[in-house]
């Protein structure tokens, strides 16, 4: 018996059917089924998917594990660069993309767990070749090179691989994988489009295009040398020399701002940083502007949480994911502050940006830096933001009450998540952690000139720290 193809021929061989497994037809039953189908009144859309794919569960999981690892490592990589990126729009966009990659890794992790891969095995997975590629990508000489590696090389390769995987895997049996990849690609499309346009902006602004092309080729060759994203593609020789062989990557510790900004770091007090108050102290107008500027200056929180993610990499997946989500939230706060200043009638770049927090936190061990922003900064916001929202509502200040309401919601979540993240970072009790954090920030504030040297024998109080840091 031959099996006819859909075109009517008899040469089609279906690998899932065999003469060894004959079909036990009963003609009366088959005819009855045909009649029931004929009489059924509804003609629903046909499902064109095929029960066929290139991968079994084992091979599917092997590939997904590499996809997961690439995504996790790219989120970490962006975190490592958050302090070093000077350009406002790029720092903000990278805060968003950091979460996109972390969320992709979580989606892939969830699917791997469904395919009977233990979470411990997933989280402990390492690949030296992928690590080597990521370390070289991190060794970009400047932000344009970093974006080229992030988007033009790694991002585009992942996007192409995901689309091929969706085409090649079983569209029925492996539908959950296809759904996860489609969800990931929803973020990839705008992310890669922005990366392309940002690279063009750098070139139009004077960055040497040929140097970017050379760097892109170098990283593409390195990716090819490890078998591409899947590890199964044809390999080439590793390009030589690699930058990491001359100098291993180290994350930056100094917060960078582009030339549109004026900055100050010796205080968190905007009146001091501005040279003189813009409004009378303790008036609603003064508090209103201070609040909005604080949100615009949450650009330092993008730097903080991104850096924490890098510094605690591989310690705990959930902590990494929560830090990535908080980074995205702080990105939105920065955007909200920037847009609100514009709506109020300011050019946001006319108002100096304070760097006190990032200057102190940049070189600091992650547990103490996290404690400062969580125990002092975010808790401090929650102490005052309710009263501010009430004042805004009483004055019918719909713009500020609207913005502050969303920020309050985020900060409550951050305080809760932050307590768990801190436990991953350190075994210190909260009391000892708070005291040591205050000591370290006292030393930093003395070095910046925010506290005079003849006062450095004491440790600043919680209230002093909130005021001097300005969060």
Give a topology summary.
Blueprint: H1 27-39, H2 57-81, H3 88-114, H4 119-123, H5 128-138, H6 143-168, H7 175-204, H8 209-225, H9 243-246, E1 263-264, H10 270-274, H11 284-296, H12 299-311, H13 317-344, E2 353-354, H14 356-361, H15 366-394, H16 398-425, H17 430-448, H18 462-469
Parallel strand pairs: 1-2
Helix pairs in contact: 2-3, 2-5, 2-12, 3-7, 3-12, 3-13, 6-7, 6-8, 11-13, 12-13, 12-15, 13-16, 15-16, 15-17
Summarize the structure in words.
The chain is an all-alpha fold and 471 residues long. The protein has 2 domains: 57-246, Up-down Bundle (Heme Oxygenase, Chain A); 263-469, Up-down Bundle (Ferritin), CATH 1.20.1260. It has 18 helices and 2 strands. It has helices at 27-39, 57-81, 88-114, 119-123, 128-138, 143-168, 175-204, 209-225, 243-246, 270-274, 284-296, 299-311, 317-344, 356-361, 366-394, 398-425, 430-448, 462-469; strands at residues 263-264, 353-354. Strands 1-2 form a two-stranded parallel sheet. α3 (88-114) runs antiparallel to α13. The longest helix has 30 residues, at 175-204. It is globular, with a radius of gyration of 28 Å.
Total count of domains:
2
- Low-confidence parts lasting 5 or more residues at pLDDT below 50? 1-10
Order of helices and strands: HHHHHHHHHEHHHHEHHHHH
Average residue-wise pLDDT: 92
Major sheet details: 2 strands, parallel
The percentage of residues in β strands lies in under 5%
Level of helix content?
55-70%
For the secondary structure, the number of strands is 2
Radius of gyration: 28 Å
Q: Given the structure, what is the number of helices?
A: 18
**CATH topology label of the largest domain:** Ferritin
Outline, from the CA principal axes?
Answer: globular
Give the neighbour order of strands across the main sheet.
1-2
Distance linking N and C termini: 79 Å
CATH level-two architecture of the largest domain: Up-down Bundle
CATH class of the largest domain: Mainly Alpha
Coarse structural class:
mainly alpha
Assigned CATH superfamily of the largest domain: Ferritin, core subunit, four-helix bundle
């Amino acid at each position: 018996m031959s099996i006819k193809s859909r075109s009517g021929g008899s040469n089609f061989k279906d690998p899932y059917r065999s003469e060894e497994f004959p079909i036990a037809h009963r003609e009366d039953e088959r005819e009855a089924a045909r009649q029931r189908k004929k009489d059924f009144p509804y003609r629903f859309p046909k499902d064109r998917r095929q029960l066929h794919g290139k991968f079994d569960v084992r091979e599917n999981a092997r590939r997904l594990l590499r996809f997961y690892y690439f995504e996790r490592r790219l989120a970490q990589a962006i975190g490592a660069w958050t302090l070093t990126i000077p350009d406002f729009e790029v720092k903000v966009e990278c805060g968003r993309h950091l979460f996109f990659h972390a969320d992709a890794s979580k989606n892939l992790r969830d699917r791997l767990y469904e395919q009977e891969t233990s979470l411990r095995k997933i989280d402990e997975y390492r690949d030296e070749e992928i690590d080597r590629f990521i370390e070289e990508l991190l060794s970009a000489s400047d932000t344009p090179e970093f974006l080229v590696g992030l988007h033009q090389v790694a991002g585009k390769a992942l996007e192409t691989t995901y689309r091929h995987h969706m085409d090649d895997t079983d569209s029925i049996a492996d539908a959950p994988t296809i759904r996860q990849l489609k969800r990931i690609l929803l973020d990839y499309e705008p992310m890669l489009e922005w990366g392309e346009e940002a690279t063009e902006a750098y070139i139009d602004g004077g960055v040497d295009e040929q140097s970017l092309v050379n760097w892109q080729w170098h990283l593409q060759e390195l990716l090819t040398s490890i078998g591409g994203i899947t590890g199964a593609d044809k390999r080439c020789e590793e390009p030589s020399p690699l930058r990491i062989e001359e100098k291993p990557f180290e994350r930056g510790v100094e917060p960078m701002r582009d030339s549109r900004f004026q900055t100050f770091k010796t205080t968190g007090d905007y009146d001091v940083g501005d040279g003189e108050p813009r409004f009378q102290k303790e008036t609603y107008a003064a508090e209103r502007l201070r609040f909005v500027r604080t949100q615009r200056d949450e650009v330092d929180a993008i730097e903080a949480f991104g850096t924490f993610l890098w510094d605690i990499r591989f310690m705990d997946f959930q902590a990494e994911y929560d830090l990535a989500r908080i980074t995205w939230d702080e990105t939105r706060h920065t955007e909200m502050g920037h847009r609100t200043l514009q709506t109020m009638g300011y050019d946001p770049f006319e108002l100096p940006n304070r760097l006190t927090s990032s200057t102190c936190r940049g070189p600091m061990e992650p547990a103490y830096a996290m404690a400062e922003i969580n125990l002092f900064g975010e808790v401090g916001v929650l102490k005052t933001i309710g009263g501010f929202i009430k004042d805004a509502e009483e004055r019918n200040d719909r713009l500020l009450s609207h913005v502050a309401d969303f920020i309050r919601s985020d900060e409550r979540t951050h305080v809760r998540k932050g307590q768990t993240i801190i436990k991953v970072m350190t075994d210190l009790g909260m009391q000892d952690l708070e005291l040591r954090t205050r000591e370290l920030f006292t030393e930093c504030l003395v070095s910046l000139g925010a506290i005079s040297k003849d006062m450095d024998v004491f440790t600043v109080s919680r209230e002093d720290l909130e005021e001097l840091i300005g969060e």
